[in-house]
Amino acid sequence: MKSAICLHNATVLTGFSVMHNCAVYIKNDKIADVYNEERFRHKVFSPKVKIIDVNGAYVMPGFIDTHIHGIGGRGADEADPKAILHMSEILPQYGVTSFIPTCCTAKEDLLIKKIKAINKTKGKEKGAHILGIHLEGPFLSPERIGAQSSDGIYSVDLDLMHRLYKACDGNLINMTVAPELKGMRELALYCVEKGIVLQSGHTNATYDQMLEAIQAGIMHVTHLFNAMRPLHHREPGVVGAVLIHPELSCEIIGDGVHVHPNLVDLLLKTKPISQIVLITDALYPAKTDLSKTPDLYLDKCFYRKDTHVINGSAISMLDGFRNLVSWGVSIDKAVRMSSTNPAQIMKQKNKGLLVPGYDADVIVLDKDLNLIYTIINGQFVKGNNQ
């Protein structure tokens, strides 16, 4: 028996329902069963099973951050495997059990170094699972560059795309592109054939160009409302396309600065809950000393000192989750946005739900949403000296 844990007297948020006075049984790195407290009391456990009374706390699938650049002073853009492993070790402190390191734009040789650094970490992580790679570029709009590096933006080039795909060695999960760029349809069809999730982002696409993008299989949108053509009453743009078309899914940065909380409320009233994904888009200084980043200052998110322009997020997924709940999002919907939806949209089987057969990536939060335990692969990674 690799591991056996039973968390009982819990409010279980499975990812599709809320179950009160229930237990979650973990065995051999998987969710073995979820049942009510009465069945727990009549079940005979092996002495090897660790039984924990969580006193009514929330038990839920671990957070999955599908768009994160760094945390704790290290990040994916260092092109250093140690930086990615550092992220993996820190993220369970904030309830993250899986993540996709995200690479910013860079010239081809440096971008490939970043890719290879992530490849080297797969299977070596001691904390949160490294699911694969998110390339935020290089095929982006110069008109909506945001905090990206302009020298890493390229015109659509299928040969370059093939070189990047080959360098990823099967680990490229998602890629942000500007769908209005010339040649994007051919690139999109190439990526769809390879199983890559394409996202519209850093884009000046019109509403009609977004419709063409949907037809080409670009079905997800990067940090909605940010670095894209906004909603206009005569030109719905990217934002309008997301609000109008339920088949489009989207990311939302949950720091309350990148997107006003009332717009999150509007989004929830407009779109199916299954189509909204909470992300951090966190930069490497998040949750660390800012003395090493003299060009930035922190005021809920990072700003550039020279221009006072937002440079990136400083939150964790736990911060974002708490923000959602404080803005009136029901806790079961917040779980879907932070755990279930990211797994399903990124095609990650056996993650994001607490149902038998799924990976035992579980977090426990008390009623004040403080993190008590993080369990990854059925093993305690964070919490109460377990």
The CATH architecture term of the largest domain is: Alpha-Beta Barrel
What shape does the CA trace take? globular
> Can you count the helices?
10
Task: Give a short account of the largest sheet.
Answer: 9 strands, parallel
- Indicate the structural class: alpha/beta
Task: Name the helicity range.
Answer: 25-40%
Q: State the distance separating the first and last CA atoms.
A: 18 Å
Overall tally of domains: 2
Estimate the mean pLDDT confidence: 95
What integer value in Å does the Rg equal?
21 Å
The name of the CATH topology of the largest domain is TIM Barrel
Highest-level CATH class of the largest domain: Alpha Beta
Which spans have pLDDT < 50 for at least 5 consecutive residues?
none
Write the layout of secondary structure elements.
Elements: E1 4-13, E2 18-27, E3 30-36, H1 37-42, E4 50-53, E5 58-61, E6 63-68, E7 70-71, E8 74-75, H2 81-90, E9 96-103, H3 108-119, E10 129-130, E11 133-136, H4 158-168, E12 172-177, H5 184-194, E13 197-200, H6 207-215, E14 220-221, H7 237-244, E15 249-253, H8 261-270, E16 276-279, E17 296-299, E18 301-304, E19 310-313, H9 317-326, H10 331-345, E20 362-365, E21 371-376, E22 379-382
Parallel strand pairs: 1-4, 1-5, 6-9, 9-10, 9-11, 11-12, 12-13, 13-14, 14-15, 15-16
Antiparallel strand pairs: 1-2, 2-3, 5-20, 7-8, 17-18, 18-19, 20-21, 21-22
Helix pairs in contact: 3-4, 6-7, 9-10
